[in-house]
Structures are given as C-alpha cells and as structure tokens.
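User: Can you recover a sequence for this backbone? Please restate the input before giving your answer.

Assistant: Of course. Working from this structure:
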C-alpha cells in the first residue's frame, strides 16, 4: 500500500529534480492551429480525403518520423519539433525549449515552410485564432485517439463547454523553467494571478459557433465551464504554504479521468490519484501522466506551462514569449511583479475572470484596471529583454498603446464592412509564408 505521504514525496522529488541552474533557463512554445477549407473556412477533419491524417502522411514523406495509435497516424516528429493532434483535429506543434526567441522562431518557420505547400496544394488554409470560425462544435469530427473518447464522455458531464474546449479551441502555451522552489512559487503565483489580464491581452477570438462573438476572451469562459476539478485558476497557488508539495496535493486529490495500462487507456471515473495509487506503485511514468491530465491556466510539470493565451499569428506568438521572458527571467522584474500581485486574493482573480469576459480590457483585477496594468507589464517586460529581443514585444505593445488587442483589430475590420475572410486575413498563415518567400 502506497501511503499518501510517500505519494507527495514522489512529486516533491520530481519537481526538485526538474530545477534548472540559474542562467541556463530556456523557454518552450506550443502553438495550436486550425486547418480549414480555403473557400468556406470550414474545418478539415481527420478522416477527410485530404484530411489531417493525410497531411501528416505528406509530412512523413518529407522526412518527419511517424507515430501511430493502432492503424491511425497521430503524430510526426522532426528537428526538435513534434506535431500532435488536439481532439477536433487541431494541429499543434511543440518546439523544444531554447535559450533565445530567435531559435524558437526559426523552428516555427521551418514547420510552416514544410506544412504550407501541402495545404496550398489541397486548397486549405492554416488559421491561427482562438476558436473555430465557421463550424459548430457538433459538426466537428473527433480524432481517433482512444484517450479522447474517455475524456469526452467524462468531461461532457462536468461542464457545458467541455466539448467546445476539446474540439473548438486553440491556444499557445509557453513553458518556463524554475531554478528552485522559491523561484517556482513566485513564477507560479504571478502567472496564476495575472491570468485574466493576460487572457484578454492576447484575446484572438472574434467568432464562436460560426457567429460573431460579442463578449471577450471566450477561452476564459470556456475553461470556466469545463471541469472545476482541472481547469481555471488554482486556489492552492494563493495559499501561504504553496510550493511543490501543495501542488502535489492539488493533483493527487482530484480525478485523473484515465490511466494507461499495457498500452491501453482505462477510465478511472471519479477516483482520485491518491485513491488509485494507494494500492499500486506510483512510478515516474504514472506521475507524469497525472500532471498532464489537469488543464488549469498554469500548470507544473518539469517546467511551468502558461496556458491562457489564444492561438495567435507568428509575430504575436513571439510577442507572448517575449512578454513572459522579460517578466519572469529578469530577477528585478520577477520580484517587482511578485510584490504587485502579493495582495491579490483567489476570490479577486475569480471575479476578474468573469469581469474580463464582459468588459475585456476595461475590466479590473483587484485594485488594477487591466488596460493600464497590461501597459505597465509590457513596459516592464521590455526592460527585461536583451536589445536583440526587445523587438519581439513590439507587436503587442503597438496594440495595447492603441487601447486594443488582437480581437479588437478583427472587430474593427468587421465594423468597416469586411467579410469573414477579409477580417481574418492577418490570421491566415499561408499568406504570411508566401509573402516571406517572395522577399
């Protein structure tokens, strides 16, 4: 029988062993995209004649290494990049951590340069936005990963937007290192506290279920109506005794939904991790699986993963990376932001999550007005970047100085009479790569 304290010890040791040496921190990036028909903007499904699986096969023919689940191709890997599939067939590229933003940018454009000729041939587009622009969630096919079948059944009973989250949304995720537990606590608490402000700063969703969306940051609303056990803001992050062990308690006292045994996924229902591993050994593979089955705005693995931003076009992806790098990897900025958020309570952050959905940049986070807070944070982040990397933050700086954000630019085009294609033109990555190649 594995006692609870021993389970907690395992997690604590895992986090300690994941600490990086000061000065050697790197930053990782994951970007999710929609593949859509170039004329209708309808989503391309996994099993279509020129669908997601066939696109992966064409990448494999270019030298990407394939990974299958049964007979289904579900993943492709090449040069520190991994392409995986989200439940609705969204293409996610994960780029391994690098020390410079330029290195991440180079890898990302390598991915685009290999993918986009395939899509052009198929008369398809790659779209970087926070939600499907044309299809309703019921019209989108599930990809064949076995785990998603179990998750869809479980989460479908937990929140009204669970399937919207799985099949309809797309985000970017930034991974940052921590050097010790004190550094972990500061970064984790800062990113949780700032989540509502940053979600609206990088809000990039103008359409929801095929219709124009009038509110703000639908991503926040979707996650607030998904599963309270594994989404949203982590209350434990605001506890006075927060640290590695407290995060382990958060994980172990909630249901992981499923486990992998003998290459098969099995449902674990409402049993918590603590209960499941009372009678079996918690090995590192099982521990790492548990960590991936929770989807809050910020989560811990062998790095801190920041998850509240919508999928964005390339220049704004790297503005996001620059924003977090400048705030979290500069010691004076880290300490100053930590002081700024030290009085924010969990309840104030929950209140802000609701406020940003209704009022966007005009909302409040505790005593802070979010528009002004974001302006201040961007200026701070800029000071924390090297001269070579300051330029990366300029695209979001320009928007916020206009009192706007990505979705604000799209809505401005719509207000001027643009159709859906025209309004979303800056989010269609195909055009960008073609233009880049002609320079």
């Amino acid at each position: 029988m594995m006692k609870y304290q021993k389970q907690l010890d395992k997690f604590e040791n895992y986090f300690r062993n994941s600490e990086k040496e000061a000065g050697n921190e790197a930053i990782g990036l994951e970007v999710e995209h929609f593949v859509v028909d170039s004329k209708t903007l309808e989503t391309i499904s996994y099993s279509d004649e020129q669908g997601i699986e066939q696109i992966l096969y064409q990448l494999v023919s270019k030298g990407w290494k394939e990974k299958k689940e049964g007979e289904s191709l579900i993943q492709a890997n090449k040069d520190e990049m991994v392409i995986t599939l989200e439940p609705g067939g969204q293409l996610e590229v994960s780029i391994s951590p690098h020390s410079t933003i330029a290195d991440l940018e180079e890898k990302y454009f390598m991915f685009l340069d290999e993918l986009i000729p395939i899509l052009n041939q198929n008369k398809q587009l790659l779209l970087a936005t926070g939600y499907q622009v044309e299809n309703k969630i019921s019209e989108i096919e599930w990809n064949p990963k076995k785990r998603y079948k179990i998750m869809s059944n479980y989460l479908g009973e937990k929140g009204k937007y669970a399937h919207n989250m799985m099949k309809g949304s797309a985000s970017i995720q930034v991974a940052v290192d921590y050097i010790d537990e004190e550094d972990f606590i500061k970064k984790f608490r800062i990113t949780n506290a700032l989540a509502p402000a940053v979600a609206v700063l990088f809000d990039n969703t103008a359409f929801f279920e095929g219709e124009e969306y009038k509110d703000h940051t639908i991503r926040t609303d979707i996650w607030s109506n998904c599963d309270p056990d594994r989404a949203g803001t982590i209350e434990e992050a605001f506890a006075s005794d927060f640290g590695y062990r407290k995060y382990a308690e958060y994980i172990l006292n909630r249901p992981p939904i499923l486990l992998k045994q003998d290459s098969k996924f099995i449902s674990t229902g409402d049993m918590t991790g603590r209960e499941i591993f009372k009678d079996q050994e918690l090995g590192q593979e099982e521990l790492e699986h548990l960590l991936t089955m929770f989807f809050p705005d910020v989560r811990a693995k062998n790095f801190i993963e920041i998850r509240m931003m919508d999928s964005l076009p390339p220049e704004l992806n790297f503005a996001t990376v620059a924003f977090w790098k400048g705030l979290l990897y500069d010691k004076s900025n880290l300490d100053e932001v930590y002081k700024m958020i030290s009085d924010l309570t969990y309840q104030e952050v929950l209140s802000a999550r609701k406020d940003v959905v209704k009022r966007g940049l005009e909302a409040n986070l505790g005593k802070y007005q979010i528009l002004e807070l974001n302006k201040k944070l961007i200026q701070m982040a800029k000071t924390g970047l090297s001269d070579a990397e300051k330029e990366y933050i300029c695209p979001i700086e320009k928007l916020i100085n206009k009192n706007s954000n990505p979705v604000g630019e799209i809505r401005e085009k719509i207000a001027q009479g643009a159709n859906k294609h025209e309004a979303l033109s800056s989010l269609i990555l195909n055009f960008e790569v073609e233009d880049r190649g002609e320079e």
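That completes the design. The mean pLDDT is 95.
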